[in-house]
User: Fold these one by one.
Assistant:
Number 1:
Amino acid sequence: TPEPEPTPEPTPAAEPASNPDSNSDAALLADATNGANAASPSAPVTSTVLESPTWILVQDPELFTVQMSASTDRESVEAFSRRNDLPGPNSVFAFERNGSTWYALVHGLFSSVPEAREALRLLPEGALRNQPWIRPIGQIQNSLKDQN
């Protein structure tokens, strides 16, 4: 995949992260903040490269990812990824909410919620400021397919 073009840091006026989907993931949000003892299968690789926006669509729907940030300002979401030096894979995808286009940054692929919790535990405090939440890949895929 091509590397993204360098862009300036966004202004602090970017909209805060939010849970744009249904409340069915409320329990997973709580799970994201409770530590777990699952071991990660391999050491994370730091990457500032974002996977293509369609990356999420080709993943196994049984896996999990962590939504790190969401905003109507794509650049602020991408800057969040760079600023926090998140290990890959990471991707930004677009979705519609209340008539506006939003952009969400997802981080990692995990086989279980405990594995995703452990990955969150290892991230720097700054990366957790937007209250990341664990999401099933299949749920995101269904939401994206429903928009087309």
Number 2:
Amino acid sequence: MRPSASTGTVLATRGDSGANPGAYHLHFCVATGPSRPQYEPRETVPVSFRNYQTRGTGVFVLLWTDVAQGVPRAGQVLRRQGTLGGASINGAAIPNGFGSIAAKVTLKGPGLPAANGVITLTVMAPCGEPLRSKTLPIGGFPAGPWTTTIDNVPSHDGLTVVASYSGGWNIPTNNGTVAGKSSVIGLPADTTRNASIPLAMTEGAVIK
């Protein structure tokens, strides 16, 4: 799983690579998908920071301006001081960027799973990146439904929950699969959203 940042997490250290010695700077960007070819396309998005200072320009170069919350612009010089405050603005709590999905898997058939079978639920981002996974044992409920809550899911629009089954099946699958997929879910921070996933057998080709 990808790492998650929270208040106080060190994201990067500045340096002068690719510039004149002493020209310390930082290249930073957030994108809608990981920078890996299999997750294209993606686009960069603005990032809001809290409690920092910007340095003036020209005759005001020695002056620093407090910023409670803002989006830094290219070319700005920023700094952070411990007296500028913490992770809240005007006393309001800041969403932590995660939510939960209450998943319900319903058997659509044909056939029934074995008692030792396992359903694996995976929350997928729109770009195809797996965000969170959780296993759900069949146990003594061969006809379902099976429910669980997947916590610490990154807040995002366009999420889906994919179910895949492993284990015995009481009728031949002919090398087919048993799987399912939810409809698209939007997950705001600090909320729980429901997801319904149909679990069905797809019969494979019969080899003659």
Number 3:
Amino acid sequence: MVQAAVAVEEMEQLSPLDLLIRLYEGAINFLKQSADDCKAERMDSFKENLRRGRRIIEEFQRTLDFKQGGQITAQLNDLYTYMLDSLRQFELTHDELHIERVIDQLETLLEGWRGAQYQAVA
């Protein structure tokens, strides 16, 4: 319980960009763990980690600002929709190609956000 309170306090002190980066890292970690769980046939853990990764992507999509984001927002929306569809396919087929694509895309976006973070600090 104390650790959870500390984690919440730490998260509240993060900048929006730092929080976004942490969420991307979390989604990637959950999805990698889900893939590992699937290989090891740990179905409960597979589903739980997949659900956690999916919920982060759903939140990314839900919080897109279409009024100010323009074309980039529309492209991110399409990408997040594709990712969510791919995760559904992975859940149904257990074909790792589907989850690997999503992880690769998230890692690419994460690197872009880290670059933005670096530019903000420099």
Number 4:
Amino acid sequence: MAIYECRDCKHEDYVARRFMLHFGPESRCPRCGTARVIKLKERDKIDPINRGLFNWIEWVIGGKIHHCRYCRIQFYDRRPLASALASEAAEKAESQPKPEGPAAQQVTTPPDTANSGA
């Protein structure tokens, strides 16, 4: 959506366009981009629903209704929540076997670099 340039070093930093929020591993709010969204069981009659082509496509292909707590909008998305992805990664890390034997018990410490000055 924008390109920022540092006045001192002339480094450019890019901010992705808004439609890029519809691509990626986890569900994100199409307006503000936060991953802190919740999945609703059914549509809420009070908060507005996000209108647009990508939202319609998500609804057609079977996306579930989500709600952004900051923008207070509802939108359809087929991707899992970020919290679900984090819990899957934690479960996967716990289920991996830990190495056993002398190599697993060996602890490496950095060499001493203290100097007494003498």
